[in-house]
Amino acid sequence: MNANESMIRLLLTETPLPAEQAAQRCGVDTDSVIRWITRGKDMGQGRVKLEGYHAGRSWMTTAEALARFLSASPRLPGHVPRPARRRTGCLKRVIERMKATA
Questions:
Q1: C-alpha to C-alpha distance for 100 and 20, rounded to whole angstroms
Q2: Residue by residue, what is the 3-state secondary structure of the chain?
Q3: Domain interval for residue 8
Q4: What pTM was estimated for this model as a whole?
Q5: Residues 52 and 39: beta-carbon distance below 8 Å
Q6: For the segment 25-61, what is each residue's pLDDT rounded down to a tens digit?
Q7: Distant-in-sequence, close-in-space partners of 12: CB < 8 Å, separation ≥ 6
Q8: Sign of the C-alpha dihedral, residues 77, 83, 89, 92?
Q9: Phi and psi at residue 16, in whole multiples of 5°?
Q10: What radius of gyration do the chain's Cα atoms show?
Q11: For the chain, does the N or the C end have fewer beta carbons within 10 angstroms?
Q12: Distance between CA atoms of 87 and 51, rounded to whole angstroms?
């Protein structure tokens, strides 16, 4: 079994999350989430990809994969730079929302 097959098997055991919902949780647009899945995001210490897959016409990830992706950075990933004060607040709100929906 290769690494890609292992990732898909792991994702299929986790809580499914459409890219649209992941985007809402992070306060970004759906295209950003799809870009994180397909190309990754530069987190300062290298590029990190959001684990996900294409299912029919939809891009999917999982709540757990999103949590792993967000924990790879001390700030909320996004394409618009924000002051440190707001980033910390945004990340806290995202984590609180994720805990509430778990």
A1: 18
A2: CCHHHHHHHHHHCCCEEEHHHHHHHHCCCHHHHHHHHHCCEECCCCEECCCCEEECCEEEEEHHHHHHHHHCCCCCCCCCCCCHHHHHHHHHHHHHHHHHHC
A3: 3-101
A4: 0.65
A5: no
A6: 888 999 999 999 999 988 777 888 999 998 899 999 9
A7: none
A8: positive
A9: -60, 145
A10: 13
A11: N
A12: 22
Tokens found for residue 26:
């992070």
Report the C-alpha dihedral over residues 100, 59, 77, 27, rounded to 10 degrees: -60
How many distinct structural domains can be found in the chain? 1
Lowest average pLDDT, out of 7-11, 32-36, 96-100, goes to 7-11
In 3D, which of 51, 55, 52, 96 has the Cα closest to residue 76?
Answer: 96
